[in-house]
Amino acid sequence: MESMPLHPIDRLLADALPPGTLFSVGGRVRDEVRLGAASEPKDFDYVVTGLSFAEIQDRLRALGRIDLVGESFAVLKLTLHGESVDIAPPRRERSTGVGHRAFDIQSGPGVSLEEDLGRRDFRMNAIARALPGGSLVDPFGGVADIAARRIDIIAPAAFREDPLRMLRAAQFAARFDFSVSEAARQAMREAAPLAATISGERVMDELQKLLVLAEKPSVGLRLLEETGVLAVLFPEVIEGRGVEQNEWHAFDVLDHNYATLDAAPAGDLVLRLAALLHDVGKPRTKEGPHFYRHEQVGGDLARSLLHRTRFSSEVIDEVEALVRNHMYVADPDLSEPALRRFIRRVGADRLERQFALRHADIVGSGLPKRDDSNERFEARVRAELAKKPPLGVRDLAIDGAEVIEAMRARGLVNAAFRGDKRVGAALALLLEKVTEEPGHNERDSLLALLEEYLSSAKLEDDSQGFT
Length: 467
Fold this sequence. Notes:
The radius of gyration is 30 Å and the shape is elongated. It folds into 3 domains: 8-148, Beta Polymerase, domain 2 (2-Layer Sandwich), CATH 3.30.460; 161-386, cca-adding enzyme, domain 2 (Orthogonal Bundle), CATH 1.10.3090.10; 393-462, no CATH class. It is built from 23 helices and 13 strands. Helix content is 49%, strand content 10%. Helix 14 packs across helix 16 (313-325) and helix 15 runs antiparallel to helix 16.
């Protein structure tokens, strides 16, 4: 096995602790075995054998600030040189509840390193590296699993003890392009109902890793589908299985969503969520070969699903907007005012993601691209955007205060008036005028248009009761 260089933190800890007691554990060791020298440690997790918790604290106190993380788990968080590392004595644990909620935990010098490794989820994650020497401790065959590109559980009860491990299996399979053993698959099938006990925050965290870090997230989602986990966590998504589409699609709705997801660029959580969910409304809107207003139903479903899994309001709003707008008509011959209305509807800051979703959607159809109309439409939109047209009321050459002053001057409101819905309506009308003809966005021109609007009989009728 390739010798790995010591990180400076490794050296500091090794110098502070007795020889033969310090071991690196967790994902760092797995990735060192998997990637060799190309691995860059992201998380620093250590186990210290042969010492009590108090003795570990005493020896490390001089290195930096020490915080206790969860008294029952006896983990120290040591902060030094701007890095935080987790250090703990070996521990054994026995589940006494459902869904990773209650454990009988023992830790300290009476627990062996092998017992500590044995409580972990997968054999590939149950490897330790002795520091500073670098030799591996591999009691469960994790190195062989990594060599075989395989994910296997240490114990049959792995998923019952912690159902989140089913999501971890999915994201590891997709990120590393590893297969999942039949034993692990069967254990997932048996534990699938327990996925309902996983908190929304924990689901979000694993789903985010899957979507952002994997080149083909569908690998993990198909594993969750096959084992029944997807139906428990995201029943809206699974509804697309077997829902056939029209001649412009080679796949059913679910496979199309998977393919669109894989075609969306990695690293963009919002775009990949939108790709997975863009057609989630189709099963509930199917009428023969048509799916009328599926983008609107899909926007509602996307918001509900993402709220349930505790995504941020910003992420939810962006994904919902992309889903609702994904059926736009990409007509390269649209008039300039129509292009500006399109930009206003989608939002200038969202355009590139909306275009990327359309390209992924086309790839996800499973059929050859028909023409270059999307590219020509996008070129015209970008050219129009480069002209910096007014796209919102804040871009107008007059503001709400001037609308209020004009209303007072015409005697429509009294001096105490501070605004109501008529002010917004006036600004919206002016924005529509400058969308049609940007040359109107000059103060004198807008004031003239405002006077014309304020003098309308309908406005005077509507003004009753607002002064």
